[in-house]
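Q: My labmate handed me this sequence with no annotations at all. I'd like to see what the chain might look like in three dimensions before we decide whether it's worth expressing. Could you predict it?
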Amino acid sequence: MKVEILKKLQCVFLFTLQFFFINGQENLSQGPYEQLILRNVTLINGNGAPPIGPIDIEIKQNIITKIKTVGYPGISKKNNIKLEKNGYELNLDGMYVLPGFVDMHGHIGGNSQGADPEYVFNLWMAHGITTVREPSGRGVDFNLDLKKKSEDNSIIAPRIFTYTGFGRGSEVNTVEDAVKWVRENAKKGADGIKFFGSPPEILDAAIKENKRLGLRSAFHHAQMSVARWNVLHSARAGLTTMEHWYGLPEALFDDRTIQNYPANYNYQNEQHRFEEAGKLWSQSAKPFSEHWNNVMNELIELDFTIDPTFNIYEASRDLHRARRAEWHEDYTLPSLWKFYEPSKISHGSYWHYWGTEQEVEWKNNYKLWMTFINEFKNRGGRVTTGSDSGFIYQLYGFAFVRELELLREAGFHPLEIIRSATLNGAEALGVENKIGSIEVGKFADIIIIEENPLENLKVLYGTGAIKLNQNNEVVRVGGVKYTIKDGIIYDSKLLLKKVKRRQRNLPKSLLLPKMNLRKKQKKTRPQHLKRLK
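A: Here is what I predict for the chain of 533 residues:
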């Protein structure tokens, strides 16, 4: 008996030693394995169940094959899952596992931001994001190439679901054009379509044809078309998910049909666009009024999904907070920082003269918006988690965790947040039988973390959470330890170090200043300290 225990301990030690030795040679991943056992973990699943542990999880290649309880908290454990001849095991006593996160609104960088896919993927994977839906982007061929490489695990990247921007590469002016484009998009292998707006008859035909072909869809209801086609129209036509919140307040109007635009409004002016958007929810029906309830109930009956992306607009209510986030200096590319700065050209860089009045409007906007989203969830509506990073001072990976915190602010229980970030996303993508929860038969997409995220979501940030320990020392705790995708173990902290090292290797002329925007001034002796002559 003792010999058997010693052999198993030796396996754990050798595996751990081998894992870190290989990573020391800049290999950031290891696996998959004929058999991998995660020992003695506490499972926080994506199905709404409370935490349970200790648990052993067996993975063979890329599939979860066994999940067993192996004792009680503080009680001696017995290993129910036998370690096979070529098997490996990780003793994760005291650690937590969650399903890999599903980011339902993730852009794979962009030329304007200077953010390449590798940079974005490393930040996503370091934060446990193992599946991403990219709505629009650099084109279907570009995205499908990355998707294939991710499926083959020839690159470090999440699973990718690509939704082509409607009409991209073609002129769509008629219903016939729309149907033809949708069919061609499906033939190319896209997973769905992202809409922004078109004439109602074209949208109706395109959404219905896309659904008939078995593809999914997303919609950012842009202001240029929303007066004739809002969220209710899309849901009735068969849309899968709405992005952000555009189109929802318009569906809730009960004393007007068009947003109260000022006479000097210009959609091409980013400050106009975002400043007036912050006043939109106050123009819609009052919470829990008859019309408010009717719209919500109809959306739920249509099995509609809302992907709010709270985080991407948060700078609108607190610009300084977003600009001063502690991760910018180590992880934000200089080109991305430049893109964030006030500009009349860059999308979302609307800080032409952003002040207290705009922030107060947006704070009120958030209260009404969050009230709707929380009640939608309470009545059985599906809410997912999306980040939309790469804009408005929101950084890949870090912004996803901030989205979780904002769902908490909206009223979600921590377990409801985890479900939103995992199984709900899988359901909206139509792959809930493959990902979204830790279950036998599903892909091995798993997050391993040393701290309990239900107690403090901040431990999911790559920078961790600040904590005062028993020795009265300020320490950092948390950060995802390992991200498992398709049965392959990735060292999350090394992925972050790789990004940080890339930043430090940039020429000094390109590095971000230490958030010091003050003009350097000549030092002078204060007037009241000058000696009298």
